[in-house]
From TrEMBL, chain A:
The lineage of its organism: Eukaryota, Metazoa, Chordata, Craniata, Vertebrata. The keyword Mitochondrion applies. The gene is MTX1. This is Metaxin. It comes from Erpetoichthys calabaricus (Rope fish). Involved in transport of proteins into the mitochondrion. Essential for embryonic development. It comes from the Eukaryota.
From TrEMBL, chain B:
Belongs to the metaxin family. Keywords: Acetylation, Membrane, Mitochondrion, Mitochondrion outer membrane, Protein transport, Transport. The keyword Membrane applies. Pfam families: GST_C_6, Tom37. This is Metaxin-2. The gene is MTX2. Residues 187-249 form the Metaxin glutathione S-transferase domain. It is found in: Mitochondrion outer membrane. Interacts with MTX1/metaxin-1. Associates with the mitochondrial contact site and cristae organizing system (MICOS) complex, composed of at least MICOS10/MIC10, CHCHD3/MIC19, CHCHD6/MIC25, APOOL/MIC27, IMMT/MIC60, APOO/MIC23/MIC26 and QIL1/MIC13. This complex was also known under the names MINOS or MitOS complex. The MICOS complex associates with mitochondrial outer membrane proteins SAMM50, MTX1 and MTX2 (together described as components of the mitochondrial outer membrane sorting assembly machinery (SAM) complex) and DNAJC11, mitochondrial inner membrane protein TMEM11 and with HSPA9. One of its GO terms (cellular component) is SAM complex. The keyword Transport applies.
Amino acid sequence: MLKFCPKKCFRVTIDAKNNMAAAMELYCWKGDWDLPSVDPDCLTVLAYARFSGAPLKVHKITNPWKSPTGSLPALKTKDDGCISQPHKMIIHFRKQKYNADYDLSAKEGADTLAFICLMEEKFLPALIYTLWVDSKNYVDVTRRWYAENIPFPLNFFLPNRMHSSFLDRLRLIKGDNGLEPGEEAEKELYKDALECMTLLSQRLGNQTFFFGQSPSSLDAHVFGLLAPLLKMKLPSNKLQQHLKSLDNLCHFCTNILTLYFPPEGADGPSRKASSPHGGDNSEFDNEPHKRRNQILSVFVALGAMLSYAFLTGIVSVHRVDSHHAVQKTEAVRIGEDEINGED
Amino acid sequence: MSLAAEAFVSQIAAVEPWPENATLYQPLKDDQILLSDHASSLAVQAYLRMCTLPVQVACRANAEYMSPSGKVPFIHVGNQVVSELGPIVQFTKAKGHSLSDGLNEVQKAEMKAYMELVNSMLLTAELYILWCDENTAKQITVPRYSTPYPWPLNHILAYQKQWEVKRKMKAIGWAGKTIDQVYEDVSQCCQALSQRLGTQPYFFNKQPTELDALVFGHLFTILTTELTSDALAERVKNYSNLLSFCQRIEKNYFGDNDSSSIVGRISPFS
């Protein structure tokens, strides 16, 4: 921890300076499996923000409809509106002078671009496949997680919609040969991904980060894509096994997790300064909604029961004029009986 | 190319030497081939020349439909057919011809990464400009693509292809880009390549690799092809070391007896 001290101090001063100006707000999927977020894109942005020291107010939510763009991640900024693509968020951070790549040489900058392309072309399709298409993982882990965490009633259709959009994306990237038969397409995707992980491991060697001692945007990208694969508990785990066999990549991920995403509560002062209401806020947001939902559901249920009772004639109300009361004693009696019965 | 076929091919390939009559197939060079296909084809030719493997170039109007993967170019060697640069590199490797054996592990990783950079940025940008820029599509791409087909097939096939490319752009998030943003991406890619190359003759110093062949194929084609505007070529011309890199490979590998062939093959789209 000690050797990162200068950066942290630097971050604290920046945070103090920016406390007045409204910080940028990041909406992202909430975390699980010891990860700060379950989504690769969210992880990349979170990691980059931590690396560069950008002050962020983080909303960890599970309802994409609550984000300002309707999708996650989303970055709400003061002057550029809302941004939904991770690489544009990183460009925005850079414009705000939060640059994790400041120390890189031109050649290292070029390498960053090349390796990001390599990961997106070779590894990302396989990751999407293993999380969203592989039926065991999808049913047991991915869909289950999203269905349990997305609030009712979105949890019934959002996971399916995400599934089909990922499937479409894979089909288009990999050409029109359908993915359903699985076997052939799966082997090809996995072969590329395994090769890609091996290449990354070779490039990393025994360094702490890809370009020496301090993390850069390439580290954020690699971490974002590899950490979920490393931490999630997947029943069909061919990719996972290969990653676990590459010790330096595993160590790279856990190292970033412990240094930059310490467990809640055991945080350094920098985090308190940058996002005092980060975690609490989201729970705070949820509380009134929960109460409202409870009350609403009680009313809806009551209304349904009553209207059913009226419509089917279990309860009927007869209006009785006082003059005719004597003539219509029978009707009154029946009416009273039924009203009493309801009570 | 499927994995099973690939494994089979590499087994067979190992035993047979490179034949004299190997052929590379590509679309008609004068009035059909598109910028992106020409770039890929030139990359394969450059690669084979760097390996000193002889190959004849054959132009066929239906090359796209002859190829096992639906992509051009493809080579016909002995009784095997292999398409696209990646599989062709593996195929020649199985036959004992490789350009990247001298590299260490890190360099190999970097080479692969830069090849993906070229494929995912330059190639995609070329496809975007050809099919998604209305002007270029109407004046150049559609007429050239549909030359060999009679009415109404020409309209149907060109429309189908354009639709396919546009859907792919949507899937990779390029659909919302403007043409200027695409040029900006090309600049970014060229800048990365230029910085990586520096003052070396080839990307990994003295010896050319498949990365050099790929970069040459794309940049040379962009530089020598006339489109509706020369904005694309201008972006590449900003980097003088990339220009001399292209000239160097052209001189060293295409400069001999058939120097006319490369120039002649690149017919300006007019």
